[in-house]
Amino acid sequence: MKKLFLSCLAVVISLQSFGWGQTGHRAIGQIAEWHLNKKAKARIKQILGAESVAMASVWMDEIRSDEAYDYTNTWHWVTIPDGQQYDKTIQEKGGDAYEATVRIIEELKAGGLTKEKEWEYVKFLIHMVGDLHQPLHVGRGDDRGGNNVRVNWFGQATNLHSVWDSKMIDGKAISYTELAQHLNMAASKNKIKEWQQATVVEWMAESMECRPMVYDVPEDKNMGYEYSYKYFSLAEERMLLAGIRLAGVLNEIYG
Questions:
Q1: Which of 16, 27, 131, 222 is deepest in the core (most CB within 10 A)?
Q2: CA–CA gap between residue 124 and residue 103 (Å, rounded)
Q3: Cβ–Cβ < 8 Å for 139, 161
Q4: Strands 156-159 vs 150-153: parallel, antiparallel or unpaired
Q5: What stretches of the chain adopt beta strand conformation (E)?
Q6: Which residue ranges form the domains of the chain, and what is each CATH number?
Q7: In the predicted model, is pLDDT for residue 18 greater than 90?
Q8: Residue 142 DSSP class
Q9: CA Rg, the chain, in Å?
Q10: Is 50 exceeded by the pLDDT of residue 103?
């Protein structure tokens, strides 16, 4: 019985660090798929088969239960303390989201991968682009990306990371396709071109700039409508940028 409890507890803890949750990641994937050019869309279709980019976006979270992929556990985040720049020496030994994203993009561009490896890499990339746009996945290094910041969300005990991963989004009670459609309305040709010019380093810098707003938690730790009203638009912006930039990266690789 004790082993079962500990196993369940481990699952709960791991779920708290899923970037954007299923709805957010799938919305990002859906936006990206809408903005793929014809050549890239055809190639991604060959790689993923019957699975859409949206549905593939959560695979990297799902495989956390597979020991064969334990080496990817630290690829969901990167640590950059306030006022500093990326420093490889302070990252986890197994790698981080920035290093893995840049390396996978380079290897996909170079080609020569087996079908299985390319399939894995594309799925990793789809997910990690989303994670790097979630402000708490570019962590300060002092609170596990907000996981240690205990708060009450509409009276329910939780943590700040969970609020940003899923609770604010799930509170809207909409599907990932509805969310994607809503977000995509703010994308124009000029904006898309501008957003896709940003580098991975700039994605992380943007996430860091968002952190003061993310950490604007009331002293009593009670969060709900007011916090969502103030900052859900920021979450929307980050998801939209992630989707547009993911499309840009895939178009650059395969288009």
A1: 27
A2: 11
A3: no
A4: antiparallel
A5: 78-79, 138-139, 150-153, 156-159, 222-223
A6: 23-76+83-254 (1.10.575.10)
A7: no
A8: S
A9: 18
A10: yes
* pLDDT score recorded for residue 19: 73
* Mean of pLDDT values over 38-55: 98
Q: Which of 232, 239, 208, 234 is nearest to 22 (CA)?
A: 239
Supply φ then ψ for residue 45, to 5 degrees.
-60, -40
Q: What is the helix (H) or strand (E) element at residue 225, kind and residue range?
A: helix 225-254
Beta bridge partners of 139: 79
First to last CA, the chain: 53
194 is written with which tokens?
A: 């501008």
pLDDT in tens, 140-174: 999 999 999 999 999 999 999 999 999 999 999 99
pLDDT band at 84 (very low <50, low <70, confident <90, very high): very high
The residue among 138, 180, 127 whose CA lies nearest residue 20 is: 127
Query: Taking Cα atoms as reference points, which of 58, 55, 52, 19 lies closest to residue 36?
Result: 52
